[in-house]
Amino acid sequence: MMRSRNLLILAAAALALTACGRYGALKQPAPMFGAQAQADYEAQQKANAAARAAKQAEKKQAPDDPSTQPLPQAPYGAGIQNRSTPFGSAPPSALGNPGTAPN
Prior knowledge:
It is a single chain. The chain is an all-alpha fold. The chain is 43% helix and 0% strand. The protein is built from 2 helices and no strands. The chain starts with a helix and ends in a 42-residue tail after the last helix.
């Protein structure tokens, strides 16, 4: 009984700790002491923000991803000749639509 309870507590703790991860790059905290170090940190943060903005602007101007470009032609073959729509009119020998028949 004691062993299963300990195993259950360990499993619950492991499950709770799995949600503590952080995605992406971690941010470096600002320095606590030194005016020069704080000024350098601020300058570095501004340079990083400007670089990210320039990268986003470049990405919006010329996307390299071919999936964002329109297709050069339709993804399906040519239509049936002498048909204006793919559904067209039925041949004369076809049965009528039962939903449109008079009562």
